[in-house]
Specification:
139 residues, two-stranded antiparallel ribbon, 3 helices, elongated
Length: 139
Amino acid sequence: MVLQISNNVSIPLHEITLTPIRAQGAGGQNVNKVSSAIHLRFDIRNSSLPAFYKERLLSLSDSRLTDDGVIILKAQQHRTQEKNRADALERLALIIRRAGHTQKKRKPTRPSGSARKKRVDTKTKRGKVKTLRKKVTDS
C-alpha cells in the first residue's frame, strides 16, 4: 500500500505511523472506551520522498512540524477510526503537495502612458468642478 502524492511521487504506508487514540470532546459513554481518533506521525528525514520535497517540507513554518522533522497530525473529525485514518492520510498528502507546489514568479507591471495621462486629466477635471462649487467672493 502506498499514499499517492502525485503521478511520480508516492509514500509507502510503512513509513507513516498511525496510532489509534481516544478522541476529545463530547460523545457520551462511547468516547471513554473507543479509540476512534488517529495520531499520524511522518518522519520527513527518514522517508523515501525526493530531496526536493524533503527540503521544502523541512523549511515550512508549520506548528505540526517538530524540530526533529516529524509531521504530527491528529484526526478526530469523524466517528469511525477508518474515516479518521483516511482523513489523516489525505491531510498529510495535501501538506506534501502544497510544499511541492512552486509559486509563479510575479512580473511587476506598470500602468500604460495613456492610463497615467487619463488619471491626471480626471484629477484635474475633478479639481475644477470642486473649484466651481466654492462660494463666490467679491474682490
